[in-house]
Amino acid sequence: MTGASTPFLRVEGVRKSFFGVTVLHDVSFAVEAGKALGLVGENGSGKSTSMNILGGVIQPEAGSMFLGGEAYAPADPKQAAAAGVAFIHQELNLFHNLTVEENLFVDAFPRRGVLPLIDRRAIRASTEEVLAEVDLQVKPSTLVAKLSQGERQLVEIAKAVSRNARLIIFDEPTTSLTRPEVERLFAIIERLKQRGIAIIYISHALEDVISVCETITVLRDGHLAGTAPKDDLTLQQIIAMMVGRSIDTIYPQRLRSGGGDRIFSVSGLSQPGVAENVSFDIRQGEIVGLSGLMGSGRSELARMIFGLDPFRRGVITINGKPLNDPTPRSAMDAGIAFLTEDRRGEGLLMDFTVSENTVLASLRSVAGALGILDKRAISRVSLDMASAMRLSTDRVDDTQVKHLSGGNQQKVVIGKWLRRQPVLFILDEPTRGIDVGAKQEVYRIINGLVERGSAVLLISSEIEELMGLSDRILALSRGEMVGSFDSKPFDREAIMAAAAGVGKLEAAE
Question: Is residue 40 domain-shared with residue 122, that is, in the same domain?
């Protein structure tokens, strides 16, 4: 093991180009054994290319790398793994139909001597030992399909530990985790650092990066924007380094704020264990933020309004008309659009093109008299959407949405609703998993929605986002509306206290 002051990994002057375009310009960074380096930057900043070079997926054109004091130049991922470099990807590489122990040893089953027989006893003992190290209390024989997302992630970490990883790279590890699972992950990372394992932590959740890492490296447009101890950087400084401009411009100014006629209201909405007598209203041209901790019922409330989940009693009114026993179809017909927090699983058809996804919510408008879809109309509508949303591509007919960045995927999700001209947009975590620059684009789009007369119910786990965009903020705690805040500047501490159920405030009428 290297000394505490000597970097375990050094990357020096690495350069890489694709098709004549340089994507990494002499990038350098380092991480010590037992420490964590936060690697941050917008999409396209060079993070993925840097990690692919570290993992042996691609080779650099210039520069050098050193691992544990020795030259490091993996020709392929197998060589990187053999050197002790492990990746914990956002999309976990596990076989759900196999057990935990089978996943840990899937490419290296221990044998019984020279016989072609798997030593099940050795597998079980080794698995129990490594699961204890990562504090995962499940049986080795448990199917991975039966585990939660957080538990599956710990299986990936256990796999890395079992293979004596000396450097573990975490790529957006908290995107699909609950807050308790996130805290558990952070505790495991601290334990890994205490064992002398070096960590590279990549995330758009900058607060998490600051919590986990000792040092932060910022990339911008393939260049090294800067490296500094986390104690020397503020969140605002990190964002400014990432986007090349002040944090003050992140939340764009709106031409006009809400205050029009009341166009949507919920009265006494209740469902046992989910919502209790929830009431609120939204006016035309208004953004109402909905704050709450995990388990507060925010997403469940949105799903009930849109008719995805049932409720026992209550009245939903839109444009003065009651929406009785709503279904997604009746909610859409009434003028409600719903952007789910799971854009990949529920908001988009990932293997379909941009054009095909764009018209999902308005197929009738691009169909002929016999119900046959008009491909030219679909292309025209999709190109208009791509222009309005400032999409990164105009090849709408042959680009699958799975090949777009998270920010551009979210633009397609929003764009598919625009042709219906909704009265109310329900946005559930609209910027989850996208970088700061893409967030600003989404903020611009949200402002545009209300400037055109729609209303927005904005659900977000980021209190700064709610404060930066909303005209009013409502706080939900355990299914109850416990606070209403309608004056800027908002009181961050009061909002968080209400969401935590500390000192309930009078609910919005």
Answer: yes
Amino acid identity at 362: S
Looking at the structure of the chain, the number of domains it has is: 2
Long-range own/partner contacts, residues 373-380 (CB < 8 A, 24 or more apart):
379/355
Same domain, 65 and 166: yes
User: Six-digit token pair at 322?
Assistant: 């009651």
DSSP string for 64-118: EEEETTEE---SSHHHHHHTTEEEE-SS----TTSBHHHHHTTT---BSTTSS-B
**pLDDT > 70 in the chain, percent:** 91
What pLDDT, on the 0 to 100 scale, is given for residue 399? 87
Cα 49 from Cα 45, distance rounded (Å): 9
Query: Rounded to an integer, what distance in angstroms lies between the CA atom of residue 218 and that of residue 38?
Result: 8
Q: Which of 219, 248, 277 is the last residue of a domain?
A: 248
- Tokens describing residue 73: 């130049």
Cα dihedral 159, 165, 171, 176 sign: positive
Cβ–Cβ < 8 Å for 62, 55:
no
Query: Across the beta sheet with 223-229, what order do the strands follow?
Result: 85-88, 167-171, 198-202, 36-40, 215-220, 223-229
Report the predicted TM-score, pTM, of the whole model to 2 decimal places.
0.64
Taking only the tens place, the pLDDT of each residue in 76-118 is 988 998 999 998 876 667 888 888 888 887 766 556 655 566 6
> Which residues have a Cβ under 8 Å from the Cβ of 295 and sit 6 or more positions away?
478
Kindly state whether residues 437 and 483 are assigned to the same domain.
yes
Q: Which residues pair with 457 in a beta bridge?
A: 288, 426
Helix (H, G, I), strand (E, B) or coil at 311: coil
The residue with greater pLDDT, 175 or 454, is: 454
Q: Supply the range of the domain harboring residue 238.
A: 7-248
Tokens 């299986």 locate to 155
Residue 289 sits in the same domain as residue 148: no
- Other C-beta atoms lying within 10 Å of the C-beta of residue 118: 14
Secondary structure (3-state) at 106: coil
pLDDT band for position 5 (cuts 50, 70, 90): low
Q: Are residues 228 and 269 in the same domain?
A: no
Residues in contact with 23: Cβ distance below 8 Å, sequence separation at least 6, in sequence order: 16, 17, 46, 49, 222
Helix or strand or coil: residue 426?
A: strand
**What is the spatial order of strands in the sheet that 7-18 belongs to?**
21-32, 7-18, 62-67, 70-71
N-to-C CA span, the chain: 62
Is the same domain home to 85 and 200? Answer: yes
Stretch (H or E) spanning 158? helix 149-162
| Backbone phi, psi, residue 213, to 5° | -105, 150
Residues 181 and 244 in one domain: yes
Are both 228 and 267 inside the same structural domain?
A: no
Please report, as a single letter, which amino acid is at residue 22: T
